[in-house]
Specification:
It is a single chain. The protein is an all-beta fold. It has one domain. Helix content is about 0%, strand content about 40%. The protein is built from no helices and five strands. About 15% of the residues are buried.
């Protein structure tokens, strides 16, 4: 999670998955008081994406998606300056 700028959007960065059947990634989010993911955005085969949600109000995760539609467990971001 990029934290160098004070902005309302949230930018996430991750390392590429080396699996040959990788289709892409999706970002998931939930309000800080919610127990389960409330939203998801498929972003494709990239290693950085920005969502129009504040990092102050939501928890985020990144999931790998394979060509058969299987989704990995979400990985939580750490601060990146």
């Amino acid at each position: 999670m990029r934290t160098a700028k004070l902005e309302n959007d949230s930018s996430l960065v991750w390392h590429a998955n080396g699996e040959p059947d990788l289709a892409g990634y999706r970002i998931v989010w939930r309000e800080t008081t919610a127990a389960q993911w409330q939203g998801a955005l498929y972003v494709g085969k990239v290693t950085e994406a920005t969502v129009k949600l504040s990092k102050d109000n939501y928890f985020f995760g990144v999931q790998a998606v394979d060509k058969d539609g299987h989704v990995s467990v979400a990985t939580y971001p750490t601060p990146l300056r």
